[in-house]
UniProtKB/TrEMBL annotation:
<feature type="repeat" description="WD">
    <location>
        <begin position="169"/>
        <end position="203"/>
    </location>
</feature>
<dbReference type="GO" id="GO:0015031">
    <property type="term" value="P:protein transport"/>
</dbReference>
<dbReference type="InterPro" id="IPR001680">
    <property type="entry name" value="WD40_rpt"/>
</dbReference>
<dbReference type="InterPro" id="IPR015943">
    <property type="entry name" value="WD40/YVTN_repeat-like_dom_sf"/>
</dbReference>
<dbReference type="GO" id="GO:0005886">
    <property type="term" value="C:plasma membrane"/>
</dbReference>
<keyword id="KW-0653">Protein transport</keyword>
<dbReference type="GO" id="GO:0006893">
    <property type="term" value="P:Golgi to plasma membrane transport"/>
</dbReference>
<feature type="region of interest" description="Disordered">
    <location>
        <begin position="607"/>
        <end position="647"/>
    </location>
</feature>
<dbReference type="Pfam" id="PF08596">
    <property type="entry name" value="Lgl_C"/>
</dbReference>
<dbReference type="GO" id="GO:0005096">
    <property type="term" value="F:GTPase activator activity"/>
</dbReference>
<keyword id="KW-0677">Repeat</keyword>
<feature type="compositionally biased region" description="Low complexity">
    <location>
        <begin position="509"/>
        <end position="526"/>
    </location>
</feature>
<keyword id="KW-0268">Exocytosis</keyword>
<dbReference type="Pfam" id="PF08366">
    <property type="entry name" value="LLGL"/>
</dbReference>
<feature type="domain" description="V-SNARE coiled-coil homology">
    <location>
        <begin position="1013"/>
        <end position="1073"/>
    </location>
</feature>
<feature type="region of interest" description="Disordered">
    <location>
        <begin position="487"/>
        <end position="536"/>
    </location>
</feature>
<dbReference type="InterPro" id="IPR013905">
    <property type="entry name" value="Lgl_C_dom"/>
</dbReference>
Length: 1078
């Protein structure tokens, strides 16, 4: 049964939403109230679902449409809902409440019946106290007229619906959590709060026939076993050929401290304890039949965990789990950053899937995933899409986002590059930063060449190449870079010091300058919140097919000062260069020759064009803690700012200067000015959720609503200039140039765009030997706010992507040396033969405005102030089907698009007010009108502003409901039918209908019609079974009417015939008479 299996994948969450369907059929439903879902009940094979919420409301969903809608809602006002039960093929829903009463609801009309089972009538004199809330309701599998009601206190009542009284009552000392029937209806089993299971005969009221403590230690003296943790749920499933299955969650002994949550499967004499990674929310046993009065034949157990869904195969020895096709591992470790790529090369997803499929664990069940409800949608996007997520534990995951659902392709563990073994001294001094030292901060990826570069929170950059072959790397290539901001002799305690350039050390340091180089006197108090450099492993590294380490670059401690975190990153495969920057300056690394090409401070990039008139550098003679760049009382670096996750600032680029003044070395000096100790741990902690001790609204109030003054005359702001964006291109480097030159454009947090000219050696052997030369040219343009994005257009307005090398297999060699690509860099510009007389346009977007500069004249031809009152968190230059545009997401929730090159506003939608830093950190646009962000720590939200995708969306959605024939009910057998055995049916309409039971109290619950519409209401509430019954009745009525019509016609014909006969006789009698004889 398709929909009987559909129940397997209805994940209810505390956020009030759930999903359905087979792999590829995914639907997202959410209640407007946002209340937690406490229970779900399918109307099996009828295309409807009942949900019960923690706010005491019950809802009926129509699943017959691609986007499910609520048809009816019922809101209880005087009682709290604790349990719901909907019998198979019944339209009457039993609802148990906290007061101990049971109410009955008609699921077609969603109206309450006047039939109520009151708690005092149910227990009568068997207990002097209130029995507590209803924790279980179910009807006897063999007699629908008998209802078992479990109360929390330990009382169970077998209620006769017809006679409206209790047949039997069963009392136990321990609280009850759940009840399960044997399919013959003669026994039931209860789970209790002391870890015991009690089995009861229906007709035996005294004591249970069996009491066991599955995980309790049995004392030798025959006393009761020690109590265990509560068994929260139990299920009792029978088989034709063997022993029954008793499956339950919880019940472990109290001395198993630290043991993970378990599901226990008892089958005959064997007991299997299955450990889970997360706490168990609920579980459900999948059986071959939907009828409760037949042998159940269980074949799998679906276990819903707090952060996962596990399906266990009961038919195989060892109970292996099924391989989960759903993307539930996105939050296996908190997501710290993500990137979205649409219209990727077509061979990329197969390549990633090929290497990712080799990573799968062994030991899964050999059977297919058992959840098979619904059908796939017909329409799909015509282009591949890939989402990359970086995580707090250092993993990078690649996801296929081409269809409606995400599918994980490949998982990369960057932490393997580093040595995890640390001495006890190090652990003591870095107890906080040990939480996420490998967290991914920024990612740069070239889809065409498949080169990947990641920057970590510990100020390290790793370059990866993609290979289909396994390789063992004897020594991981390491480059150590010193980037240090020197202070002027005229440092002042009030934060007015002048910054000077980075310590210029192009070469690699001879050793890793990590935590051991910290001053021992300050390791415990002043450096506790800093992230020390990680130690790269010295042993050989076996690298499987996929992404393999090519080079590790580390920023090292200098004179006891930690390196500043990396704020921007870019790579170019045709140039063989990786560039990264922070608040100190820029470093360019040649990953082909494994050398540092450039290491310059931000000031030196300006050359003689420095607009701030900074004083000449001078060596720093001493380090005085009083001369910090940041005072603890400065409004721009509040304690809330210090508590932020670094990436929350990095991705939005809104508070780079505040953060980098307050983090790293500024943080060290500030702590010497008595920074509260409880704020230290979160200075460098990466987490998807807002940091401890800080409300996300506080983040918004303190960092987003403050004035974003773009004044560049302030020495205070000048001291905080950080690198915010890089862009490689082939363009006109200088004003009036006539030839295209490889360049690197650098954007800063003060809105400046600087140009560096690249001189590259010829391809081939020369590229391996001759150095790359980089020359700063100076400033191109200045904008308000930090630079977020740059792009280049040709003279016709078409996008000019950076050049790239096509991918090649790096591990295939003929002479023992690394293979060198022999092709020249490929330029993917639409106008490949660009004439010298033609110009280019560079587009620069900052937090406040966008400008289009004509090159080589370097004149601003278009300018647009995007926002005055807010600021932009994310901007991307995206290729649409009709052209190129700038897409922006503002902190006030607006999504805006501007045309290029004219910067004409195309769209302004108030989409989503910024409620926490997670959205700012993860929001990104991509080509063809797609965008995404993390709407919660566990969910990616994809949105589109493309008309084409919107029109195709309905076809892409899958069908949730597939009507199938309901299996035949179990045969009663000759003797059971003869002697009255077998299942007893019940006319519930006769008992619960308005004629028999009357109307329910209006004040008890309020009926709310849903937005599903009248037609949907009829369709979903009635279902296939109802439709067939109605059709059958209609046919009977039509046949009856036809029969009546036929009888009336026959009677009329007989009457006409009689009239004709009488008329003929009359005519014969009167034929010979004269007129006067009448």
């Amino acid at each position: 049964m398709e929909e009987a299996r559909l129940v397997n994948k209805a994940d209810c969450t505390s956020a009030g939403h759930y999903r359905f369907g087979r792999p590829g059929v995914e639907c997202y439903c959410q209640h407007e109230s946002g209340a937690a879902v406490i229970q779900l009940q399918f109307l099996i094979n009828e295309g409807a679902l009942v949900s019960a919420l923690a706010d005491d409301s019950v809802h009926l969903w129509n699943l017959r449409q691609k986007r499910p809608a609520i048809l009816h809602s019922l809101k209880f006002s005087r009682e709290r809902i604790t349990f719901c039960h909907l019998p198979f093929q019944s339209k009457w829903l039993y609802i148990g409440t906290e007061r101990g009463n049971v109410h009955i609801v008609n699921v077609e009309s969603f109206m309450l019946s006047g039939y109520v089972i009151m708690w005092n009538k149910a227990i009568e004199l068997s207990s002097k106290a209130h029995p507590g809330p209803v924790v279980h309701i179910s009807d006897n599998p063999m007699d629908e007229g008998k209802l078992i009601i479990g109360f929390e206190s330990g009382i169970v009542v077998l209620w006769d619906l017809k006679s409206k009284k209790a047949d039997y009552r069963y009392a136990h000392d321990e609280a009850i959590h759940s009840v399960a029937w044997h399919h013959e209806g003669k026994q039931f089993i209860c789970s209790h709060s002391d870890g015991t299971l009690t089995t009861w005969n229906v007709r035996g009221q005294g004591r249970p026939i069996q009491t066991i403590t599955p995980h309790g230690k049995q004392p030798k003296d025959g006393k009761k076993p020690e109590p265990c943790k509560p068994i929260l749920k139990v299920e009792y499933k029978t088989t034709r050929t063997g022993e029954p299955f008793i499956i339950f969650s919880g019940g472990l002994s109290y001395d198993t401290v630290g043991r993970r949550p378990c599901l226990t499967v008892m089958h005959g004499k064997s007991t299997a304890v299955l450990e889970m990674d997360y706490p168990i929310v609920d579980f459900l046993t999948l059986c071959e039949t939907p009828y409760p009065n037949d042998f159940q034949e269980p074949y799998a157990v679906v276990v819903l965990l707090e952060k996962d869904l596990v399906v266990i195969d009961l038919a195989q020895n060892g109970y292996p789990i099924f391989e989960n096709p759903y993307p539930l591992t996105i939050h296996e470790s908190p997501v710290t950053c993500c990137e979205y790529f649409a219209d990727c090369p077509v061979d990329l997803i197969p390549a990633l899937y090929s290497v990712g499929s080799r990573q799968k664990r062994q030991g899964y069940s050999k059977k297919e995933w058992p959840v098979s409800g619904g059908n796939w949608g017909q329409g799909t996007l015509s282009y591949p899409e890939i989402i990359i997520t970086g995580h707090a534990d250092g993993t990078v995951k690649f996801w296929d986002a081409s269809a409606i659902m995400l599918q994980v392709l490949y998982k990369l563990k960057t932490a393997k590059v580093f040595d995890r073994n640390r001495s006890k001294e190090d652990k003591g001094s870095t107890e906080v930063s040990d939480e996420d030292p490998f967290a991914i901060q920024i990612m740069a990826w070239c889809p065409e060449s498949r080169m990947l570069c990641v920057a970590g929170v510990s100020a390290n950059v790793i370059v990866y190449r993609f290979s289909k072959l396994e390789v063992t790397t004897e020594v991981v290539q390491l480059l150590e870079v010193r980037m240090q901001s020197e202070l002027n002799e005229t440092d002042s305690p009030d934060g007015g010091g002048e910054p000077t350039s980075a310590h210029h050390t192009p070469g690699a340091s001879p050793h890793t300058s990590g935590p051991p180089s910290q001053p021992s006197t300050s390791s415990n108090n002043s450096d506790g919140g800093n992230m020390p450099c990680l130690k790269v492993r010295s042993t050989p590294l076996k690298q499987s097919a996929g992404y393999q380490v090519d080079l590790v670059v580390q920023l090292v401690w200098v004179s006891g000062e930690p390196p500043q975190q990396i704020t921007s990153l870019a790579l170019n495969s045709s140039y063989g260069l990786v560039v990264f920057g922070n608040s100190n300056g820029v470093a360019v690394v040649d990953y082909i020759q494994k050398t540092v090409v450039l290491n310059l401070g931000t000031v030196e990039l300006y050359g003689s064009n420095d607009p701030y008139q900074r004083q000449p550098r001078s060596p720093r003679k001493s380090r005085q803690p009083s001369g910090g760049l940041c005072d603890i009382n400065e409004g721009s670096a509040t304690s809330e700012d210090r508590c932020k996750s670094p990436t929350s600032v990095l991705m939005s680029n809104t508070n780079l200067h505040q953060f980098y003044n307050g983090g790293g070395r500024g943080a060290k000096m500030s702590r010497k000015l008595s920074l509260p100790t409880e704020l230290k741990p979160d200075l460098v902690l990466l987490s998807v959720c807002p940091p401890r001790g800080a409300n996300p609204l506080d983040h918004r109030d303190n960092s987003f609503s403050r004035s974003r003054s773009s004044s560049v005359t302030s020495i205070d702001k000048e001291a905080r200039e950080a690198i915010s964006f890089f862009h490689f291109c082939e363009t006109f480097a200088r004003k009036g140039d006539s030839t295209l030159t490889p360049c690197l454009f650098v954007g800063t947090s003060l809105g400046t765009v600087l140009v560096l000219v690249l001189t590259l050696p010829p391809a081939g052997e020369q590229r391996q030997l001759q150095p790359v030369i980089i020359s700063p040219v100076g400033m191109l343009v200045r904008l308000k706010g930090s630079v977020l994005r740059m792009a280049f257009l040709d003279s016709s307005g078409s996008l000019l992507p950076p050049s790239y090398d096509p991918w090649y297999e790096p591990n295939v060699t003929t002479d023992g040396e690394e293979k060198v690509p022999k092709r020249r860099p490929v330029s993917v510009s639409p106008s490949t033969s660009q004439e010298l007389s033609e110009s280019q346009y560079t587009v620069v977007c900052s937090e406040k405005q966008a400008k289009v500069i004509s090159l080589p004249s370097q004149t601003c031809i278009y300018k647009h102030n995007i926002t005055e009152t807010s600021f932009i968190l994310r901007a991307d230059v995206v290729q649409m089907s009709q052209g190129v545009c700038v897409a922006c997401f503002c902190a006030n929730g607006h999504i805006k698009t501007l045309s290029l090159p004219g910067l004409r506003p195309l769209m302004d939608v108030n989409y989503l007010p910024l409620t926490d830093m997670r959205i700012a950190r993860t929001f990104c646009f991509t080509n063809l009108g797609q965008a995404m962000y993390l709407c919660s720590p566990t969910e990616i939200q994809r949105i589109t502003y493309s008309q084409e995708t919107c029109e195709n969306l309905q076809e892409m959605l899958g069908e949730l409901f597939t009507p199938v024939e309901t299996p035949e009910a179990p045969n009663r057998g000759f003797f059971k039918g003869l002697f009255g055995g077998g299942a007893q049916s019940l006319d519930r309409e006769e008992l619960f209908g308005e004629l028999a039971a009357g109307k329910a109290s209006r004040s008890l619950a309020q009926h709310i019609p849903g937005p599903g519409g009248i037609e949907g209401m009829k369709g979903a509430a009635s279902g296939v079974v109802g439709d067939l019954a109605r059709a059958r009745i209609a046919l009977d009525e039509r046949g009856q009417k036809l029969g009546e019509l036929e009888e009336r016609t026959a009677a009329m014909m007989a009457s006409a015939d009689s009239f004709s006969k009488h008329a003929h006789e009359m005519m014969l009698k009167c034929k010979d008479k004269k007129w006067y004889q009448f």
